[in-house]
Amino acid sequence: LTMGLLAGSLTVPVFAASDADSASDKKWVIATDTVFKPFEYTDDDGNFVGIDVDVLDAIAKDQGFEYELKSLGWDASIAACQAGQADGMIAGASITDERKEKYDFSEPYYDSGVGMAVNADSDIASYEDLKDKTVAAKIGTEGCSFAESIAEQYGFTINQFEDSSSMYQDVLAGNSVACFEDYPVLGYEISRGVAFKLPLPMENGNSYGFAVMKGQNTELVEMFNAGLKNIKDSGKYDEILNTYISK
After folding, report:
1. Would residue 230 be called left, alpha or beta, if left means φ above 0 and alpha means ψ between -120 and 50 degrees?
2. CA-closest candidate to residue 9, choices 29, 27, 38
């Protein structure tokens, strides 16, 4: 691995006692985003946490495999998988037909959708209100794809950002009048005090999946699927969601 990919790595030995004998000797390298709350982020105590982080950890413990989690960022995670520097990726990746041409996905581990957030004191209440204005979106995300799909119809332009934090700041500063992002992510930010509101219902979107390059690391996808079923059956999955998303 290059020095750039070593930043933000976390080695997690997680052998379940019942599965230790059957666990692979391989340490899987898993790439993820840096900040995509509540799916992955660094908490106030400096711990890297989130739904993706905890789901992966629970699955690894259930299946008895060891992994190294690398917090690289969205684009860098994709690049690491493509270059063979990561075996898989868990970063709120929406399962789309286009992506399935390049990646093999696990069974869905979270059902999501796209939302539009505006400043809490904004008078924007519909897509029609975006005419001749600028909105923000994060490059390569479903939110960005959705914004692009309706931009011509509603007559707005798009500022694209590498990370969610920069995108939010652009809206808070008034440079963009709205941003498009995964609905649960926006809901989480608002619940934590970001001065946004969601004027419209969630647009139906795609589910999130764990991804590997097409035709590679089949064993890892199979273990993820088996572990996901087990943690759902045991109640561990719901416990993780309830930790990060208020009902």
Report:
1. alpha
2. 29
The strands making up 27-32's β-sheet, listed across from edge to edge, are 9-12, 66-71, 27-32, 88-89, 211-213, 103-105
One-letter amino acid for residue 60 of the chain: A
CA distance 113 to 14: 32
CA angle 138, 144, 147 (to 5 degrees): 135
Predicted pLDDT of residue 21: 40
pLDDT (average), residues 80-92: 97
Closest residue by Cα to residue 241 from 180, 202, 188 = 188
Closest by CA position to 53, among listed 168, 210, 246, 171: 210
pLDDT of 59 reads: 98
CA pair distance 94, 145, nearest whole angstrom:
11
6-10, 70-74, 200-204: least confident range:
6-10
pLDDT class of 1 with cuts at 50, 70, 90: very low
Instruction: Compute the distance between CA of residue 65 and CA of residue 12 in angstroms, rounded to an integer.
Output: 10
The number of residues making up the chain comes to 247
3-state DSSP assignment of residue 117: strand
What token pair was written down for 205? 């979107």
Nearest Cα neighbor of 244 from 102, 104, 96, 53 is: 53
